[in-house]
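Work Package 4 report. The design task specified in the project plan requires that, given a folded chain encoded as structure tokens, an amino acid be chosen for each position. We show below one input record used in the internal validation round.
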């Protein structure tokens, strides 16, 4: 049996491209929120069953789908033995976001989830998970066609709730790991990718922490309810809540400059009415740190800040940290092993190393358990059989392209020097405006002659007028002191550019 070659995979990828586009269109038009991916999971499971995989497992940690493909090729040693064969986990996330569709496409989403907690919400695939799911479905198709030459086992993991389930529910990668389904196959590596606003054909990776550790922050500020006409008889929780939001935004100044953190509040929930001061206000947000060692310190600072600000207003504050996601760490050894493969795939010039970002991705759970790498795939202006991938509003194309005007060094403007005075009796320099007295004399006598032109009387009046307007205070008729040659030379020389 001949070994599997890259050419076979390339041919299979070309054959399935049109199907990937069609699948992505369908998924984009029918998005579902976290822990509500019922139809998406059924769509994926039907496809995997149609391929004839060895196992298709559904309802994993909610709506997760796991497909297993066992290859019949030789093991890593090339001896034909299956001993030591690897099991590789490939992961894609399926859930959408509670945001409005912004692109006018035939497959644009018009879905509104009426029953989601806090809703109703419009629903759209604004983070590219439709592309991730469609591409992994395509990978399953390609690898199934070369099953006999495949040297190992592939686990296709379609994960729900990557964006985070409702706070009173469980889900996502941690729930799939806790289910024990994946451990049955003992993966030796896990790989994932995320579309990014990079030029098509580029692959970017981060050495070390690629994504930050994150958690949901819930701060409940408790006051005392009262009618809006008599605030002095109660304790209004809204002012301390506003100050807590502002104070949390300044926490970055309390950590060393090299430690990257981000604290944000995205939702404020009040139980009051427009004319009633409610009993409590709840703040919902996230706290992120690129280094996991900073997370505990950051959470303690949030708790202390909220508590002290609330006490200053006579209120109480309860702080909770929910749905913790570890930092996604690409180990240097894994990067060194994967980079040559990426360079062979897209070319050395199209593989880019980037610093870690403050987003989060719970792919970190799988990489932490099994090892592996997560990379970013350039999808800016990507065309798949005539389809343009646009993962974010406005533009990945503008964010990703360098703007030459912003990269050029800006110079301070040079101040224009006044031209030197013309020699007495000579013509004025071009562009210099004559004095008011000279202009009046020219209009009166109809002469366009310069200084010293026209009648002798006009010339005498012109010279007298110039002398009378000087600020030196010399007596009229007194001989003028000749100017210093060095000073004249300095004045005539152009001013040096200072940058």
């Amino acid at each position: 049996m001949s070994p599997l070659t890259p050419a076979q995979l390339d041919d299979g990828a070309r054959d399935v491209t049109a199907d990937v586009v069609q699948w992505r269109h369908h998924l984009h038009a029918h998005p579902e929120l976290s822990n509500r991916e019922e139809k998406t999971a059924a769509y994926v499971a039907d496809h995997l069953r149609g391929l004839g995989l060895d196992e298709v497992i559904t309802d994993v940690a909610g709506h997760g789908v796991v497909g297993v493909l066992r290859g019949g090729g030789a093991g890593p040693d090339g001896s034909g033995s299956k001993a030591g064969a690897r099991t590789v986990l490939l992961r894609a996330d399926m859930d959408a976001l509670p945001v409005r569709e912004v692109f006018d496409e035939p497959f644009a989403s018009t879905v509104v989830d009426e029953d989601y907690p806090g809703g109703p919400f419009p629903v759209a695939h604004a983070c590219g998970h439709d592309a991730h799911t469609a591409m992994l479905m395509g990978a399953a198709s390609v690898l199934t066609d070369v099953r006999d030459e495949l040297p190992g086992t592939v686990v296709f993991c379609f994960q729900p709730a990557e964006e985070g389930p409702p706070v009173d529910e469980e889900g996502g990668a941690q729930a799939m790991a806790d289910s024990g389904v994946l451990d049955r196959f003992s993966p030796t590596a896990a790989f994932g990718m995320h579309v990014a606003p990079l030029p098509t054909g580029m692959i970017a990776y981060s050495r070390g922490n690629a994504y930050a550790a994150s958690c949901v922050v819930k701060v409940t500020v408790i006051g005392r309810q009262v009618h809006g006409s008599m605030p002095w008889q109660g304790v209004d929780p809204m002012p301390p809540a506003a100050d807590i939001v502002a104070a949390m935004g300044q926490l970055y100044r309390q950590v060393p400059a090299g430690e990257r953190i981000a604290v944000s509040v995205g939702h404020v929930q009040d139980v009051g009415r427009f004319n009633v001061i409610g009993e409590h206000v709840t703040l919902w947000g996230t706290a992120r740190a690129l280094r996991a060692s900073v997370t505990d310190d950051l959470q303690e600072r949030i708790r202390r800040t909220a508590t002290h600000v609330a006490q200053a207003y006579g209120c109480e504050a309860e702080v909770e940290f929910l749905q913790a996601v570890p930092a996604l760490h690409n180990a240097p050894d894994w990067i060194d092993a994967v980079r040559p493969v990426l360079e062979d795939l897209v070319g050395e010039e199209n593989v880019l190393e980037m610093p870690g970002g403050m987003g989060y991705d719970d792919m970190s759970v799988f990489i932490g358990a099994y090892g592996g790498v997560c990379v970013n795939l350039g999808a800016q202006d990507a065309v798949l059989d005539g389809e343009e991938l646009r993962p974010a509003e406005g533009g990945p194309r503008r964010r990703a392209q360098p703007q030459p005007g912003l990269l050029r060094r800006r110079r301070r403007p040079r101040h224009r020097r006044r031209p030197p005075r013309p020699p007495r009796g000579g013509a004025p320099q071009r562009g210099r405006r004559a004095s008011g007295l000279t202009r009046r004399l020219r209009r009166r006598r109809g002469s366009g002659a310069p200084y010293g032109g026209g009648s002798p009387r006009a010339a005498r009046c012109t010279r007298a007028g110039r002398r009378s307007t000087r600020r030196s205070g010399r007596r009229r008729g007194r001989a003028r002191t000749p100017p210093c040659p060095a000073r004249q030379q300095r004045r005539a020389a152009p001013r040096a550019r200072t940058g």
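Residues 6-29 form the longest helix (24 residues). Validation will be extended to a larger panel in the next phase.
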